[in-house]
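Lecture notes, unit on protein representations.

Consider one protein chain, 62 amino acids long.
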Amino acid sequence: MKVSKYWKAVAAAVVAGAGSLGTAMQDGVVTQGEGITAVLLALGALGVVWKVPNRQEPKDSA
């Protein structure tokens, strides 16, 4: 399965941001600090996953 590094990074950012916002919404209010934290987590996940290369498919040695 080939997943480009772009979509892999976007998916990681969405999951990190949504997870953080899900936790922040437990009391029904998202404060400014919680919003900033969600954005920073999403950007951090985007950057880290973007930087890690996809595993290369093994070539046939036959």
